[in-house]
Amino acid sequence: MHEDYHDLGFEVVYLSIDKNNKFWESVVEKYHIAIPNRSFVVMNLEESEFLNKLNVDLIPRYLIFDKEGKLIHQNAPKPDSKELRVLLESLLFN
Predict the structure, then answer these.
(1) CA distances from 56 to 76, 84, 89 (A)
(2) Percent of the chain with pLDDT over 70
(3) Of 92, 52, 57, nearest to 75 (Cα)?
(4) Residue 17 is part of which domain span?
(5) What is the CATH number of the domain that holds 40?
């Protein structure tokens, strides 16, 4: 999906809130998401104002932000769904 929409300004960032770093490492390897500057582990989960405001308590969770960093979808469809492509195209082409 990143490759399909990157030229239009679309970026993918992976955040893990897993407390088990070994589990996250296995996910990163399995799904090939060890991407520098786009794959992160949240180290201060309990203190994270960002995650607390978003009420992120379930994973995976898909969020869409505009270019200015404003949250525009708090619970987006899964990356492999047709619904997400329709949503992205409506946001990117309108």
Answers:
(1) 13, 19, 25
(2) 97
(3) 57
(4) 2-92
(5) 3.40.30.10
